[in-house]
Amino acid sequence: MEPNIPNLRRWRDALRTTKRPQGRGDLKKRPVTEYMSARVMGEYALCCLGIWCDLLVQDGVLISKENKFGSVMFGWPDKDWDGEGAWASEVELPQGIQSLLVPEDCESGDVEILYVPDLFGRDGGPMRISAISANDLLGLTFDQIADCLTWNYRLDG
Hints:
Strand content: 15-25%
Helix content: 25-40%
Low-confidence stretches: 105-111
Number of strands: 8
Order of helices and strands: HEEEEHEEEEHH
Number of helices: 4
Mean pLDDT: 81
Structural class: alpha+beta
Distance between the termini: 20 Å
Radius of gyration: 16 Å
Number of domains: 1
Strand order of the largest sheet: 1-4
Shape: globular
């Protein structure tokens, strides 16, 4: 099976055009502060995979729920809240979401693997890294991650 190029392009384009702030450590979260006995909610920040999940919520493929700390979890609409694999944590994708981008048996690996063309691994080739690590640890911007997707999956054209 091949990567789902239309979905990868859609994710890449959403990364390039979003006006949402980029977050780290959670798929989607907004800061919650207590101010004079009232809870004040800030603007949502998303990681690169949170952008993908938000697109799937817009399409009705996933649903989301927010906890009292401002973190959002994503899940399948036909599963119970506590169903096995129905809900991921605030930092993980629900089961099966990766296959909508890159099938598990695809030669290029799963969706979390990116080859970063400007960084080099020990073998002298492009560094292989997860999208989560690119976002959270390396601090790549949404545009830089979109560039990696374009390069890795040959999304031009």
